[in-house]
Design a protein that fits this description.
4 strands; Arc Repressor Mutant, subunit A; mainly alpha
Amino acid sequence: MRERMVSVEGYGFHIPALFSKDFFMAGFTLIPNLLMKYSARISLGSLDLLVVLALFYFQQQGNDAPAPEAFSRLLDVPENQVKVVLESLVARGLLKIEGGRFDLSGLFEKIADLWAEEKVQALQEMRKEAAPTAQVRTAGRAQTPLLSNLFRIFEQEFGRPLTPMECTQIICWYKDEGYSEELILEALKRAVMRGIFNLNYVDRILSRWARNNLRTTQEVNQYEERYFAQRQARKGKPNLEGTKEDKEEKYKDLYLT
């Protein structure tokens, strides 16, 4: 908009500034997002929706009983079409007109029903997705309380529930691969130190230990210290006790290669 000064009876008005002030002072018509979301499912056509939005406008202006001609002027729609829409909304139970006053409680009840139906469906889907995990976890608990403890610790460290596949993987480590609880938790500890929260990395660590026939925490620590000392020697650096960051880099080089 090109700025210019307009003089009205000797008074200067800055048109853009005056318009901006009136634009915000006039207020806004609030449109419920759920109305827009479910309008098609309620079978609200474009003109139906316009009439409903116009009614919101009138109500927010303090007019609860607008005449059909008021809708017609606001929407630039023939008055007879407005009457047809209002009669249709009443016939479908979405609108009540009592004493000339408009009541949209029927529309809101319909929206509430659709919202509740959607929430129930979402809850049912969540339960279906959670069922396999619960079955695997129950199977693990039935076999040994140790597995239940492993599930709990992994979920605590990962900050989320385990998936059915992850539960199965932990059971496989313990029962099929024969990894001890001690080794599994040591591998988890190293993954967490690297900020890697997935079982693929934990599995890579356990596989590395298995290839080197490492069965205890002491053997793992000795193996890592030998590796770290050899790496320091190759770099020509003294074998000093490393910082926390050095240890994290050690795990990175050892288990990501």
